[in-house]
Amino acid sequence: MNTQATVWHHLSAAPHRSLFLVGALQGVLTLLWWVFDLIGRYGIVGSMSVWSMAPIWAHAFLMVYGFFPFFIFGFLFTTFPNWMNGEKIKPRQFLATCLLMAGGVMLFYAGLFAGKNILLGGIVLMLTGWGIAILALLRVLLSTQAEDKRHARVASVAFIFGWLGMAAYLVWLLTDQWVFLDFSRQAGIWFFLLPILLTVSHRMIPFFSSRVLENYVMVRPYALLWLMLACSAGHGLLQLMGMPQYTWWVDFPLAGCALYLSWAWGFLRSFSVSLLAVLHISFAWLSVSMLLFATQSLITWLSDGERMWLGLAPLHALAIGYFASMVLGMASRVTIGHSGRPLVLDHFTWQLFLGFQAATLFRILPDIIPAIATLASVLYVLAGTVWFICFTLWAARFAPIYWRPRVDGKPG
């Protein structure tokens, strides 16, 4: 078998391989593009770049719909059938998803230089790949007789809302109607990413903890999961209705639930195993971010909306602190475990994870502490640069695993 065929054989051996590989490459590209834009915008190096659309909305799309989904699909294509003892996702399904979404992302980048028409083509390809993924997951969900399908059902609904959010972005580009962009933004965060990661956290963190911590009592209260999902949906709906000053009604309960689960799942005990600690630290950012959202909303309500305190700190605490850290923590665990390696996080990868946490702090602190607000532009660029460097090093370490055979000689 020639080298090219061997690489393709390994990439198609399991769903996470191709999708994680493209996610790793896309993460490097999107962070490189964003840092390049920031240093020009703030006059640190060069001058402001001209794109075919506002860079902030391109950045939002590339992160929400063009980065996280590769890792989420790769993870759930692997675990979704296992949750219900269902039929495995077929290679033609996960490879079609991967190739179409990867092609769409590349066209999106090209469209930033060449114009909106190419952007539109890229999003259509991504929607097609996403649609294939939803159909594949729904087929597993509907064809199995498992008694407990709760996590799978929530994930399926969230994926559908993610597809609708991306479609709304496409309609916004076609019509310039703000309502579609607003729906795309809110759906991507509150109806897609947060429900997915809440569900995965609820399912996997106590399970992983029970495997490595002695005398561990698994706590997995579904009532809290339903409440947290309702709060997430409520936040998104209030934003869509133009009432951000009232989101504290749902943000405080969500923060409280997350804080309780961090304690119940053994946050402090997790530090004895670094591969587990990365998941607990990531989840802890959820309570921090929701407390920031709640505080921001409450202050806005008390001040009659005269000023939006805390800026984008709550959003970045959620997106970088929780979403990005959890995705990378889960991806690291899946990659290590499914490559036949011992389930141990090496010191270098642990340091990279701590770098992700530092990037989160660099991004949110200027919006929280007025005394350093004058350094905001420098710290924003520093946050992006640290995250880019750490993620690039993570990708360089893990990406080669995806096109190589398992070290234990087993298939997959």
Topology summary:
Blueprint: H1 3-11, H2 15-41, H3 55-64, H4 68-84, H5 91-114, H6 116-143, H7 150-175, H8 178-212, H9 222-240, H10 248-264, H11 274-302, H12 313-337, H13 347-368, H14 376-402
The gist of it:
InterPro entries: NnrS (IPR010266). The chain crosses the membrane at residues 18-36, 56-82, 94-112, 118-142, 154-175, 187-205, 217-240, 246-268, 275-302, 308-331, 343-365, 371-396. By secondary structure, this protein is an all-alpha fold.
Total strand segments: 0
Distance between the termini: 18 Å
Number of helices: 14
Please indicate the percent range of residues in DSSP E strands (runs of 2 or more): under 5%
3D shape: globular
Characterize the main sheet.
none
Helix fraction?
over 70%
Can you walk me through this structure?
InterPro entries: NnrS. With 412 residues, the chain is mostly helical. The protein has a single domain (3-402), classed as Up-down Bundle (Cytochrome C Oxidase, Chain A), CATH 1.20.210.10. Helix content is 76%, strand content 0%. It contains 14 helices and no strands. The chain has helices at 3-11, 15-41, 55-64, 68-84, 91-114, 116-143, 150-175, 178-212, 222-240, 248-264, 274-302, 313-337, 347-368, 376-402. Helix 2 (15-41) runs antiparallel to helix 3 and helix 2 runs antiparallel to helix 4 (68-84). The longest helix is centred in the middle third of the chain and has 35 residues, at 178-212. The mean pLDDT is 93.
Q: Which labels suit this protein?
A:
single chain; mainly alpha; 76% helix; globular; Cytochrome C Oxidase, Chain A; 412 residues
